[in-house]
Amino acid sequence: MRTFELESVEAIDQAVRHRSVHDGQAFIAGGTTLLDLVKLDVMQPEKVVDVTRLPLKRIELLDDGRLKVGALVSNTELARHDIVMRDYPVLSEALLSGASTGLRNMATTGGNVMQRTRCPYFRDPDMPCNKREPGSGCSAIDGINRNHAVLGTSDQCIATHPSDMCVGMVAAGATLVLEGPEGQREVAFEDYHLLPGNTPEREHDLKPGELITHVILDAPRGGGQHYLKLRDRASYEFALASCAAIVTLDGDSVSDVRLALGGVATRPWRATAAEEVLKGQPATQENFERAAEAAFTDAVAYSHNGYKITLGKQAIARALRDATAAARV
User: Fold this and answer.
1) Taking all residues of the chain, what is their mean pLDDT, rounded to a whole number?
2) Which residues are in the FAD-binding PCMH-type domain (predicted)?
3) E strands within the chain?
4) Is the model's pLDDT at 88 over the cut of 80?
């Protein structure tokens, strides 16, 4: 691991100023991703700024019914918070399905948003990777790509986004609050992570000098919610396919639905095509399967990951079934 300078800040404006002025700098909170990548020589920051003293550790219910979550709230605290378990169970389930207890205790909300792909070619500095070294090529396209994406890919990158929490956030209709040199702005969670296109090194909509300060969850949508994660083993494993589903019923018909997918796409994936198939339709297994088919209309399979299309469809149908059952309770 290369040496770096370490500094601590206690105010948001200090952190913004550091990020604006210093190139080759990284923030550290829980460090569950950053330290791994520094040890692997994938990231080589000259300076690391400790932000754990920033006043961003509260979960606050706003007057309009939304829930404001500080970027330094741990994954465990967020998952186990009474309001989250009651009103946003899809998010709680997503968080608790990820990593291990020890990692969830350390990992922060903001850090989870910013975590980087687990693609083995990205994590190996000796392999070509457009995300790590633009223009060097994508080793996964013609390599071992069993765990890679089938949605949102390009000829430059097919790496999946690894986060379970982010999938739950997209389904819940979250908004990110960013602070930077030009002030504060908000970005819809589903728009924050970028498709690789021709610039896979640009992973998110964070401008120079900005940092995440909060995530705001929409007022509770009601209905039934479920997060389903399919993986090679039962714990401490990343998703091969996952689905976060929120279903609202009017009698036996679906009046509203939100679906987000993980493990199959290059970013946390809002399955809008599947949602449109379901809205206003009876909540039946046949319609759940029709919605699942619609979600993968534009999927592109590579040499080893075609099974993910089938697996992803099954995840959607099962998550919808379980969310609908919860809505009927």
Assistant:
1) 97
2) 1-222
3) 5-8, 25-28, 47-50, 59-61, 67-70, 175-180, 183-188, 211-217, 224-230, 241-250, 253-262, 269-270
4) yes
